């Protein structure tokens, strides 16, 4: 029973710490020689079997001297001692018990013997059996019961014989003897066992063996744990020489490491740092962790998490460092990637926020601009009312002071109107709503016309001059309205800031490509219609450079940078002195930019400024223009005249006072009704510069005929070889605009004018008086109405033409306007307004009728209602534009037309393509002038729009803009 | 003088009409168009407007009376009325027409009926005003005066 207990005790002591032996595979990582199973490790230690691999002596020293090592040892010894003391105690206890039992058994034996003696005596004398038995039984009860199994000895004696008989007692004696024997035997066995145990204890349980066992288990455990772990464990002495290293990546043999420092072993990035780090830990005496990146030739770029702790001797001296490193390259890479990603995300997010803010701001700005535009539009309508009322007022009888006040009122009103128009223009450009047209135009005409217009309103003693280079094409394609706007703006600016000297325009071809040339810009600028691409093989790009120069006050250098900014003027002083909104140049700049060019300025203070812009234009190649020539080649004279017209490249406008006097004296001048209502002397040209040969040609032929030929040549838009024929410095009429050349020369000027006045009514293609109008209204959209009415007149016109009769000439004096409107009240109002403005208009009721009218007559301007029955204004405009482009009407329109007017004498007469191909300005009349519908109008090819109801002022502005004469 | 009194009456009445928004600046514009060559222009246009609008409103009513309302046709009529009223300066009629137009676009018969009622009412109101104005104008002209220009 004692043996069992000893085993229990044994198990209790050694159960917890280490796992059972787990075999000895994969030990190579340890640079320690593995002490084989069951070998005494300490023996090996003393023998120093592998000094080269591990500095065992050092390890022993370490365990002996370092605090950690000694405490470890002390613990182990203590443990062992405790175990043995415990075992000894248990054994002694057991011994005590056994001894006691033996004593008792002997005592019993003696008692029994005595009893037996007594029995024999009793045999003779007294009998006390029962008490003895009781006592016997009690003996066992007094034995200390340590274990239950001891109770086995208490079992009752089983005796068959009757109590009290001799047999009984004999049996009992025998049994007790047996028991005694068994007891003695057990005692002996126990003694034997005890001896054995003591012997075993002496041989087996030496502390060294225990220790080595423990160490072995620890060793195995470490191997088990570390065999695949990416760690390096090492110990270095205080000189940081390796004394021990375990390396999962054994790229070096142990011999190359032990006894060396990091620096001696490796080279590369991070080696010195780790050495320093270890030294630092050693010096500070505190453990530390750090992540270090190495890049050594030996194992490449790797990142290690290094833990270094100092090792102290028992005396507390530092004797070295333990260090542990774990390869965290992948983790670091991942982490860095994460960080990077996070950073990128943060950046992305920041960008997004920024973008959102920008978008928000942009939206706000757009909204603000939209608001401004809307506001401006809203302001414009009532303002025009004010200004037009003032204008009307100025025609009434006023005294001097009233007139003065009214003048101020008018000029202020005009200024505000100008400002609002500028704002609207700017917002149009900025919002991208500004669409550029691509139309044929003649640059010379534009320059001339701009100068003429400027000269007309010139109040200063200035000379206006223009020069167009010979190589500038006769016709180019671009947005003539915008170019005219830019030129007008620049010229009026120049005039404003010039008090004496001259203001002029130079137009030349730039031979080399404009340096800032950008293809897409050009595309955007000039290829508004995709259809235009189809023709692009017949077109060349020409870059025109336009200088607008003056001899004015100039611009100080410091003001140049802000010159093109909105609402900026050279200085506040200028603004006071010269007025203006500061928007003009900004608009010019934007417009030029929109067309793919650039606007620059050079200036010298007090000497003048030059604004220069370079723009790309498309040019039709010769074969195209040649075909245009052919159409009218029959009219030889016209061609000849027109060729001369085309190449005139210089214009000069002297101060008007001078001209006026000349005009009055000589009466030999050419008047042009450039002014609003054809007052003949509003603009004139120098008579002395009047071309003599031109004059002679004119005078040689009857006036009517020559005028007619002029008119026809203009219709033809003929283009010929550039023939220099220019002592004509001033040329008062051109043929880009039909009316221009029909502003006739001096000899006919007055006649025609008078003629116009007197015969106008007879010559009108369609005259609509009140009653006729009403009659037409009552026809209520009858398609035939207009064609019926048109027919006879048209015929007569054709007849006139054939005969070269000048009868129809006066028509050309005043522009022909077509009103397309279905609402008779609107018609009535518009008509009356036009009448007041000095125009008579033709009226048709829907888009289809408008096209019919166009098929028979030429119009200079169409006012088109958008919403109409049968065919709306947008569709009609598209058809008209398509005709202008391709020279033929859409099939649907033609067929319907022939059905409607089946007369054979009419059908063949379709106007010459050249005549109608000129782009007719079409003005929409919209019920709501909000941007969307305006955009629709512009998209359909309309040039502008008037919001309904039409007002006097609206109409007047529109006529001024689109009928520049 | 009779014409002076009439003129004053005319101005007073017209200013009320203007203030209440029955007519706007456009009417003034029409007046300005009236001169020796067109002495009865406003009267002519106005009469035409009243006749035309009366017919149009009847037309609107008959379209709306039908089981299936042809909103496109209705809208065309409304647009026409809107254009006429804008041209003559009958602002309140025009404003109702705009609402009417929106109802047409939405295809709301209920809205259209409501607008029709309103437009008919406004039409009657402006008709009365215009007729009064025309009567006064005729009287002024008859008395040898000239119709005073109106401003808002």
UniProtKB/TrEMBL annotation, chain A:
The keyword Kinase applies. Residues 816-963 form the Response regulatory domain. Keywords: Coiled coil, Cytokinin signaling pathway, Cytoplasm, Kinase, Phosphoprotein, Transferase. Transmembrane segments: none annotated. GO terms for cellular component: cytoplasm. Gene3D superfamilies: 1.10.287.130, 3.40.50.2300, Histidine kinase-like ATPase, C-terminal domain (3.30.565.10), PAS domain (3.30.450.20). Residues 374-619 form the Histidine kinase domain. The modification 4-aspartylphosphate is found at residue 865. Residues 88-122 form a coiled coil. It is found in: Cytoplasm. Its EC number is 2.7.13.3. SMART domains: HATPase_c, HisKA, REC. It catalyses: ATP + protein L-histidine = ADP + protein N-phospho-L-histidine. GO terms for molecular function: phosphorelay sensor kinase activity. One of its GO terms (biological process) is cytokinin-activated signaling pathway. It is an enzyme of class 2 (transferase). Cytokinin receptor related to bacterial two-component regulators. Functions as a histidine kinase and transmits the stress signal to a downstream MAPK cascade. This is histidine kinase. It comes from Musa acuminata subsp. malaccensis (Wild banana).
TrEMBL record, chain B:
Residues 38-143 form the HPt domain. Functions as a two-component phosphorelay mediators between cytokinin sensor histidine kinases and response regulators (B-type ARRs). Plays an important role in propagating cytokinin signal transduction through the multistep His-to-Asp phosphorelay. Functions as a positive regulator of the cytokinin signaling pathway. May play a regulatory role in salt and drought tolerance during plant development. Keywords: Cytokinin signaling pathway, Cytoplasm, Nucleus, Two-component regulatory system. GO terms for molecular function: histidine phosphotransfer kinase activity; protein histidine kinase binding. This is Histidine-containing phosphotransfer protein. Histidine-containing phosphotransfer domain (HPt) contains an active histidine that mediates the phosphotransfer. InterPro entries: AHP1-5/YPD1 (IPR045871), HPT_dom_sf (IPR036641), Sig_transdc_His_kin_Hpt_dom (IPR008207). It holds the Pfam family Hpt. One of its GO terms (biological process) is phosphorelay signal transduction system. PANTHER family: PHOSPHORELAY INTERMEDIATE PROTEIN YPD1. The keyword Nucleotide-binding does not apply. It is found in: Cytoplasm, Cytosol; Nucleus. PROSITE patterns: HPT. One of its GO terms (cellular component) is cytosol.
């Amino acid at each position: 029973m004692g043996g069992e207990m000893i085993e229990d005790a044994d198990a209790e002591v050694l159960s917890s710490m280490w796992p059972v032996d787990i075999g000895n595979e994969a030990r190579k990582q340890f640079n320690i020689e593995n002490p084989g199973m069951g070998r005494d490790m300490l023996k090996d230690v003393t023998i120093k079997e592998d000094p080269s691999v591990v500095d065992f002596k050092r390890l022993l020293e370490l365990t002996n001297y370092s605090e950690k090592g000694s405490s470890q040892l002390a613990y182990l010894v203590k443990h062992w001692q405790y175990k043995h003391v415990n075992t000894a105690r248990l054994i002694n206890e057991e011994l005590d018990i056994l001894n006691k039992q033996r004593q008792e058994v002997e005592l019993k034996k003696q008692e029994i013997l005595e009893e037996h003696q007594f029995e024999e005596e009793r045999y003779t004398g007294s009998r006390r059996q029962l008490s003895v038995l009781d006592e016997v039984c009690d003996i066992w009860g007094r034995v200390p019961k340590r274990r239950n199994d001891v109770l086995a000895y208490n079992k009752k004696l089983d005796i068959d014989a009757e109590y009290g008989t001799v047999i009984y007692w004999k049996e009992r004696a025998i049994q007790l003897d047996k028991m005694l024997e068994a007891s003695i035997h057990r005692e002996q066995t126990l003694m034997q066992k005890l001896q054995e145990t003591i012997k075993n204890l002496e041989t087996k349980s030496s502390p060294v063996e225990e220790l080595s066992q423990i160490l072995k288990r620890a060793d195995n455990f470490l191997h088990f744990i570390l065999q695949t772990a990416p760690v390096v464990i090492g110990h270095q002495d205080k000189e940081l020489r390796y004394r021990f290293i375990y390396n999962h990546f054994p790229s070096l043999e142990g011999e190359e490491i032990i006894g060396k420092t990091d620096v001696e072993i490796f080279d590369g990035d991070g080696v010195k740092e780790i050495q320093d780090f270890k030294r630092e830990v050693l010096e500070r005496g505190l453990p530390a962790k750090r992540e270090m990146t190495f890049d050594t030739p030996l194992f490449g770029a790797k990142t290690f998490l290094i833990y270094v702790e100092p090792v102290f001797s028992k005396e507390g001296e530092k004797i070295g460092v333990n260090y542990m490193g774990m390869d965290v390259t992948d983790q670091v890479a991942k982490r860095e990637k994460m960080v990077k990603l996070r950073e990128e995300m943060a950046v992305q997010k920041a960008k997004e926020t920024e973008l959102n803010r920008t978008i928000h701001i942009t939206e706000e700005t757009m909204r603000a601009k939209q608001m401004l535009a809307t506001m401006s539009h809203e302001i414009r309508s009532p303002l025009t009312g004010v200004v037009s009322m003032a204008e009307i007022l100025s025609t009434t009888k006023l005294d001097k002071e009233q007139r003065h006040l009214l003048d101020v009122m008018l000029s202020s009103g005009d200024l505000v109107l100008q400002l609002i128009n500028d704002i609207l223009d700017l917002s149009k450009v900025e919002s991208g709503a500004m669409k550029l047209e691509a139309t044929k135009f003649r640059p010379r005409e534009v320059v001339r016309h701009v100068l003429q217009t400027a000269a007309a309103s010139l109040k200063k003693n200035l000379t206006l001059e223009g020069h167009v280079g010979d190589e500038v094409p006769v016709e180019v394609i671009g947005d003539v309205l915008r170019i005219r706007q830019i030129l007008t703006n620049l010229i009026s600016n120049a005039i404003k800031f010039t008090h004496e000297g001259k203001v002029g325009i130079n137009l030349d071809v730039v031979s080399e490509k404009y340096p800032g040339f950008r293809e897409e810009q050009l595309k955007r600028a000039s290829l508004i219609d995709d259809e235009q691409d189809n023709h692009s093989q017949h077109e060349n790009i020409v870059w025109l450079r336009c200088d607008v120069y003056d001899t004015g006050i100039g611009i100080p250098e410091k003001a140049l940078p802000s010159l093109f900014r909105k609402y900026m003027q050279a200085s506040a002083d200028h603004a006071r002195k010269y007025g203006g909104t500061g928007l003009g140049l900004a608009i010019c700049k934007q417009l030029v930019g929109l067309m793919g060019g650039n606007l620059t300025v050079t200036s010298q203070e007090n000497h003048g400024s030059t604004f220069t812009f370079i723009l790309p234009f498309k040019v039709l190649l010769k074969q195209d223009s040649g075909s245009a020539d052919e159409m009218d080649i029959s009219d030889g004279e016209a061609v000849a005249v027109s060729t001369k017209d085309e190449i005139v490249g210089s214009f000069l406008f002297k101060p008007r006072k001078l001209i006026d006097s000349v005009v009055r004296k000589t009466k030999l001048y050419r008047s042009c009704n450039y002014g609003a209502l054809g007052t003949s002397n509003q603009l004139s040209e120098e008579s002395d510069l009047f071309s003599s040969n031109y004059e002679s040609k004119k005078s040689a032929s009857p006036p009517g005929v020559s005028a007619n030929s002029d008119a026809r040549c203009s219709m033809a838009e003929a283009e010929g070889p550039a023939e220099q024929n220019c002592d004509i410095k001033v040329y008062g009429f051109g043929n880009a605009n039909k009316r221009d050349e029909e502003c006739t020369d001096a000899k006919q000027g007055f006649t025609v004018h008078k003629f116009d006045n007197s015969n106008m009514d007879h010559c009108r293609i369609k005259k609509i008086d009140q009653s006729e109008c009403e009659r037409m209204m009552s026809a209520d959209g009858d398609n035939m109405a207009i064609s019926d009415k048109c027919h006879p007149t048209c015929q007569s016109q054709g007849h006139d033409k054939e005969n070269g009769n000048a009868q129809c000439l006066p028509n050309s004096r005043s522009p022909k306007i077509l009103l397309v409107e279905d609402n008779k009240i609107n018609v009535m109002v518009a008509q009356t307004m036009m009448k007041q403005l000095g125009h008579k208009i033709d009226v048709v009721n829907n888009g289809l009728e408008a096209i019919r009218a166009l098929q028979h007559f030429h119009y200079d301007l169409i006012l088109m209602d958008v919403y109409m029955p049968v065919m709306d204004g947008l569709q009609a405009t598209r058809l008209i534009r398509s005709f202008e482009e391709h020279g033929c009407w859409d099939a649907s329109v033609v067929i319907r037309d022939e059905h409607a007017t089946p007369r054979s004498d009419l059908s063949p007469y379709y106007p010459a393509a050249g005549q109608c191909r000129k782009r007719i300005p079409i003005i929409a009349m919209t019920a709501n002038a909000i941007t969307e519908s305006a955009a629709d109008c512009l998209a359909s090819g309309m040039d502008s729009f008037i919001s309904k109801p039409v007002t006097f002022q609206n109409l007047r502005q529109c006529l001024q803009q689109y009928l520049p004469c | 003088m009779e014409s002076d009194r009439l003129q004053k009456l005319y101005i007073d009445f017209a200013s009320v009409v203007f203030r209440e928004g029955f007519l706007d600046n456009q009417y003034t514009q029409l007046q300005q168009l009236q001169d020796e060559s067109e002495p009865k222009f406003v009267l002519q246009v106005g009469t035409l407007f009243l006749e035309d609008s009366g017919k149009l409103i009847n037309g609107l009513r008959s379209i709306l009376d039908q089981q299936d309302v042809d909103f496109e046709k209705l809208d065309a009529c409304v647009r026409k009325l809107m254009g006429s009223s804008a041209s003559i300066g009958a602002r309140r009629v025009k404003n109702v027409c705009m609402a009417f137009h929106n109802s047409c676009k939405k295809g709301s018969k209920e809205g259209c009926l409501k607008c029709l009622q309103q437009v008919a009412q406004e039409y009657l109101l402006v008709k009365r005003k215009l007729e009064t104005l025309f009567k006064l104008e005729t009287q002024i002209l008859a008395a040898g005066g000239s119709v005073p220009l109106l401003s808002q």
